[in-house]
Backbone:
């Protein structure tokens, strides 16, 4: 019997043809169809929330609509709006959790809805306020930059000390072609925007931008992207190419991650890293131990092969994170390891320390589907965002925008949560102690309603309900006034 698809995955699922049978490990995948359009571009996990920036539109359980910026509640397993950001519009490309408790967002060059916000802003989870990073006066060569970049998107943000570094595709004025290219900083103490030296140098005839920023172990800044060198370190005074950089004819850097042992992981669309004696062939990902580069068992294949025989160029690694088990995980646009040794690494893979392994069938099976971003959450799972179908399904379109991998997920079961007082079509309180619940069921599954006062302790309510092969509603008398409710779904093998 095929693994049970979570309830959420049953909603309006369209399958044109099945590329392969589900693998046993596919039971560890959990899909959520929301958001309803667009796709997440960046994720960061903070407590019970995963904050997201993207081009998506979502509707929460109260049917409130949000655009570009939202957060996923790991307790309720659903999208929520971000208080204070209801009027923020635009496409989000970056999100960063600062050590000051703030969540920093970046996106299009005009985050309308917040006075003065230009491409970047911050959310305070304590006060539920979203504010701009505004300098009292213009402190850059570019005119009108008091609230952030206005001539290009923001793709990366990192806070180091009292400085918030912002990277993207923005530039300085025509009279100073390098000084403000692709990066600048905001001093939280002085409220002052500053250029970083003479900026980064554009590769001739190649659109430049910074795609990733991280803090190195010594507190300095490392930038990766499309510019001369591809990897550049800022020590507070000067820029220098880091670890030999990326050859200019080899591609771009899209993702950076520093391991707990100090190893630097670099992902992107390149096929070589380093310079001179340090140069090695490395396909889409490589690691630097402070002395030498490593290709990480060859990385990923440069071609993505679809089941219909159509081939695409694999754009490579888009994001890197540490997740369940403390392992390194990557996502992007690829379907196989180098030499097509493992052809099941569809858009996502895990590094064991010596080789890449697949996560079941992965996510997405076509060249038009991507896993843009991923993050390990504090519930033992890995959240993946993008536009994709279920990994073992060759769908005509990427209907899912978010998926979650939980290695210890119990085979054949899933929970569909909900809050009884949210007055939605999923859970409605019709009268005190009575709830009308409409869910998608299947004929070979059983459904047990459970309640909890605190999302920690759960108890069964009523008897097990036998599913039918259509959407149906149940009215259940509850002997409790608990706030939280969910279904335990069991596939009787």
Residues:
């Amino acid at each position: 019997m095929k693994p049970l698809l979570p309830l959420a995955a049953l909603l309006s699922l369209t399958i044109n043809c099945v590329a392969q049978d589900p693998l046993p490990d596919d039971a560890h995948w959990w899909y959520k169809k929301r958001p309803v359009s667009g796709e997440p571009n960046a994720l960061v996990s903070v407590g019970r929330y995963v904050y997201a920036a993207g081009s998506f539109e979502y509707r929460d359980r109260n049917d409130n609509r949000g655009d570009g910026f939202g957060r996923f509640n790991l307790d309720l397993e659903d999208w929520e709006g971000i208080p204070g950001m209801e009027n923020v519009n635009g496409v989000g490309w970056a999100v960063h959790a600062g050590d000051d408790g703030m969540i920093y967002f970046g996106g299009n060059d005009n985050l309308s809805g917040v006075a003065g916000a230009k491409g970047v802003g911050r959310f305070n989870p304590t006060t539920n306020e979203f504010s701009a990073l505004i300098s009292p006066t213009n402190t850059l060569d570019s005119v009108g930059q008091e609230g952030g970049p206005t001539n290009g998107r923001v793709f990366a943000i990192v806070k180091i000390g009292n400085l918030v570094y912002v990277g993207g595709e923005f530039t300085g004025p025509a009279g100073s072609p390098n000084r403000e290219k692709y990066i600048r900083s905001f001093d939280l103490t002085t409220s002052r925007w500053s250029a970083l030296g003479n900026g980064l140098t554009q590769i001739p005839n190649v659109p430049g931008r910074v795609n990733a920023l991280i803090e190195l172990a010594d507190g300095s800044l490392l930038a990766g992207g499309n510019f001369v060198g591809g990897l550049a370190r800022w020590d507070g005074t000067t820029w220098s190419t880091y670890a030999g950089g990326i050859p200019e004819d080899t591609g771009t850097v899209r993702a950076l991650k520093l391991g707990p042992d100090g190893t630097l992981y670099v992902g992107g669309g390149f096929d070589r890293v380093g310079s001179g004696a340090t140069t090695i062939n490395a396909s889409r990902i490589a690691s630097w131990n402070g002395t030498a580069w490593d290709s990480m068992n060859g990385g990923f294949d440069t071609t993505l092969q679809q089941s219909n025989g159509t081939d695409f160029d694999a754009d490579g690694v888009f994001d890197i994170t540490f997740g369940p088990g403390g392992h390194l995980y990557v996502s992007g646009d690829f379907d196989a390891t180098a030499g097509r040794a493992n052809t099941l690494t569809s858009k996502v893979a895990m590094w064991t320390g010596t080789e890449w392994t697949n996560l079941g069938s992965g996510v997405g099976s076509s060249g038009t589907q991507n896993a843009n971003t991923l993050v390990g959450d504090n519930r033992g799972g890995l959240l993946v965002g993008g536009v994709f179908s279920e990994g073992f399904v060759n769908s005509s379109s990427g209907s899912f925008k978010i998926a979650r991998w939980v290695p210890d997920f119990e085979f054949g079961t899933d929970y569909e949560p909900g809050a009884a007082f949210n007055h939605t079509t999923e859970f409605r309180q019709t009268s005190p102690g009575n709830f009308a619940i409409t869910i998608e069921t299947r004929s070979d599954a059983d459904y047990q309603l459970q309640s909890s006062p605190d999302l920690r302790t759960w108890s069964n309510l009523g008897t097990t309900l036998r599913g039918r092969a259509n959407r149906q509603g149940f009215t259940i008398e509850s002997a409790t006034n608990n706030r939280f409710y969910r279904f335990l779904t069991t596939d009787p093998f």
